[in-house]
Amino acid sequence: MTIQSSAQIGQVIRNAVAFDVKNWQGGMMNTDSLIQSVQDLFTVLEQRKIDYVLVGGIATLYYVEGRNTQDLDLLMAVSSLEKLPELKVSNRELYFIRASYNELQIDILLTQNPLFKKVHSDYAKPQRFLDRDIPLATVEGLLLLKLYALPSLYRQGNFARVGIYENG
């Protein structure tokens, strides 16, 4: 499936959440609201002229079929993040922030990191989706980000994610 609209981005995330057995325990979230949350987030980013780049699994789906992801990954400066008070930050590290927008999980890679800044400035271009232009990392930018992440995943012993990164 080639992603063509922000609604389809929401559908990919909704399906990944809905069909992940780990999410079946406890109260089931309304996964249909994820589609609207994705569209609302992209509208807010556009209206506030927030400088970001879409990376991660959704960006990969623009180029390659068969990827599954439960979140959005964005490259963004701290100053841009400050324009989004709706985000609820659950974890903050030096170069990474995990937040939520309604039920939607968002991982933010901060451009304070020199590599993230390089991808943001040199390896991104707007791609037309049916309903809007979304700044998207190029294939080269996505590869740089994967190569950056691999050593850390090996050190953590997170071999499930290593497999995804090496094969996706």
Structure in a nutshell:
The chain is an alpha+beta fold and 168 residues long.
How would you characterize this protein structure?
The structure is a single chain. The protein is of the alpha+beta class. The protein has a single domain (6-138), classed as Beta Polymerase, domain 2. The chain contains 7 helices and 7 strands, in the order H-H-E-H-E-H-E-E-E-H-E-E-H-H. The chain has helices at residues 6-18, 32-47, 56-63, 78-81, 114-122, 139-156, 159-167; strands spanning 52-55, 71-76, 88-92, 96-101, 104-110, 124-128, 133-137. It has a 5-stranded mixed sheet with strand order 1-2-5-4-3. Strands 6-7 form a two-stranded antiparallel sheet. A hairpin with a 4-residue loop joins strand 6 and strand 7 (133-137). Helix 1 (6-18) runs antiparallel to helix 2. The chain is globular. It starts with 5 loop residues before the first helix and ends with a helix. The mean pLDDT is 79.
